[in-house]
Design brief:
Organism: Longimicrobium terrae
Strand order of the largest sheet: 3-4-8-7-6-5
Helix content: 10-25%
Cofactor: Zn(2+)
EC number: 1.8.4.12
CATH architecture: Beta Complex
Shape: globular
Number of strands: 9
Strand content: 25-35%
Low-confidence stretches: none
Family: Belongs to the MsrB Met sulfoxide reductase family.
Catalytic activity: L-methionyl-[protein] + [thioredoxin]-disulfide + H2O = L-methionyl-(R)-S-oxide-[protein] + [thioredoxin]-dithiol
Structural class: mainly beta
CATH topology: Metal Binding Protein, Guanine Nucleotide Exchange Factor, Chain A
Number of helices: 2
Mean pLDDT: 93
Length: 140
């Protein structure tokens, strides 16, 4: 993974849309069934919308019926980080981009084989890079 990208909230506000900032920097969630990648099946890589870090391959995407894009595993073990989330009176595992610490969604232990995991990810936190296209990391 590339070096960490650390920016101030003011700098993130300049670089992200209001919705991207709310999800990625303020740990928000987009409304279910509204995300642009919910039904996408195009081959490629999903990268962090904030920094371009590769997160998930399209081949790991599956229809979970939850209203958010779901994946069985990240592109690599160091692509994302996981944190205990005790918000909303429950304990969940939050998933963040390992490069910029942007909030992506949550991971649950109810996914299909082979991992048994469901990475439930906000569409607004990602961009899709078509297969064969270069992935460009955002720099400070």
């Amino acid at each position: 993974m590339a070096d960490k990208l650390r920016l101030s909230d003011d700098e993130w506000r300049k670089r992200l849309t209001a919705e991207e900032f709310q999800v990625l920097r303020q740990h928000g969630t987009e409304r279910p069934w509204d995300g642009c990648f919910l039904g996408t099946k195009d081959p490629g890589t999903y990268v962090c919308a904030a920094c371009g870090n590769p997160l998930f391959k399209s081949g790991e995407k599956f229809e979970s019926g939850t209203g958010w894009p779901s994946f069985t595993s990240p592109v690599s073990a160091d692509a994302v980080t996981e944190y205990e989330d005790r918000s909303f009176g429950t304990i969940r595992t939050e998933v963040r981009c390992a490069r910029c610490d942007g909030h992506l969604g949550h991971v649950f232990p109810d996914g299909p084989p082979p991992t048994g995991l469901r990475y439930c990810i906000n569409s607004v936190s990602m961009k899709h890079v078509p297969e064969g296209s270069p992935i460009t990391l955002v720099t400070a």
